[in-house]
């Protein structure tokens, strides 16, 4: 494969990281029921539960129920969506939050969600990070395009700003929520850089879900 082909391949791969929805586009109608399924059983569920509480909105957040591989997250999301349909209380949106890390099912999970069966109506979305969720935490403090080998490397960098930070963390949102606007701005800038350069480490789409939830909070004030 020549250099030109390599570059084309990288851009195609990165295409799966590009935003395919916006807060307003995703909320054309009042949202009644949202499910977030996380690969992590502690830090990520706690973060989104605290965020929802801060926004005064009700959402379902599941973590420990689905194990950790991205494929398991998507499988669990499908099962919960099907159950909601059968119960006559269908989820409006289901978000699968998972990391690349060293998961062999990362790309297959992205592909499966991108090509999900019509019966799911495109309501199941991937919210993925590379190498892991911690890049979102770091972006609250600094903008970076530095490559990170794994979660340990990211946690070490985060501790330059949050000395007591650990991978398992139940209260990180409370410690950084005042920096949320900076994190969103930095994540948007990083996504633009990823698209321009064809790289995906680091990368995250957590900011898109955060913006969705913020829009839900704003829209519910009008009903």
Sheet with the most strands: spatial strand order: 2-1-3-4-5
Q: How far apart, in Å, are the first and last alpha carbons?
A: 56 Å
**Rg measurement, Å:** 17 Å
Biggest β-sheet, characterized? 5 strands, mixed
Order of helices and strands: HHEHEHEHEHHHHEH
Query: Number of helical segments?
Result: 10
Q: What proportion strand?
A: 5-15%
What structural class is derived from the secondary structure elements? alpha/beta
Poorly predicted parts: 1-16
Outline type: globular
Tally the beta strands: 5
What's the helical proportion of residues?
A: 40-55%
Instruction: Round the mean pLDDT to the nearest integer and report it.
Output: 88
How many structural domains are formed by the residues?
1
Molecular structure report:
The protein is of the alpha/beta class. The chain has one domain (about 20-220). The chain has ten helices and five strands; from the N terminus they run ααβαβαβαβααααβα. The protein has helices at about 5-15, 25, 45-55, 70-85, 105-115, 135-140, 150-160, 170-175, 180-195, 205-220; strands spanning about 35-40, 60, 95-100, 125-130, 205. It has a five-stranded mixed sheet, with helices on both faces. α3 links the parallel β1 and β2. α9 packs across α10 (about 205-220). The radius of gyration is 17 Å and the shape is globular. The relative contact order is 0.18. Residues about 1-15 have low confidence and may be disordered.
């Amino acid at each position: 494969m020549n250099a030109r082909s390599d570059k084309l391949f990288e851009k195609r791969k990165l295409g799966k990281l590009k935003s395919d929805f916006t807060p307003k586009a995703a909320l054309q109608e009042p949202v009644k029921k949202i499910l977030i399924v996380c690969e992590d059983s502690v830090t990520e569920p706690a973060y989104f539960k605290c965020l929802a509480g801060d926004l005064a909105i009700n959402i379902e957040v599941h973590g420990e129920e689905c194990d950790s591989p991205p494929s398991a997250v998507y499988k669990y999301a499908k099962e919960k969506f099907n159950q909601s349909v059968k119960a006559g209380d269908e989820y409006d949106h289901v978000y699968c939050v998972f990391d690349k890390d060293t998961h062999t099912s990362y790309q297959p999970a992205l592909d499966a969600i991108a090509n999900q069966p019509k019966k799911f109506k495109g309501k199941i979305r991937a919210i993925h990070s590379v190498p892991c969720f911690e890049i979102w935490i770091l972006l609250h403090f600094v903008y970076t395009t530095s490559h990170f080998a794994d979660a340990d490397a990211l946690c070490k960098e985060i501790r330059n700003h949050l000395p007591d930070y650990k991978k398992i963390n139940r209260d990180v949102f409370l410690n950084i929520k005042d920096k949320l606007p900076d994190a969103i701005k930095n994540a948007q800038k990083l996504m633009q850089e990823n698209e321009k350069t064809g790289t995906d480490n680091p990368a995250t789409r957590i900011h898109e879900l955060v913006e969705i939830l913020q829009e839900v909070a704003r829209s519910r004030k009008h009903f």
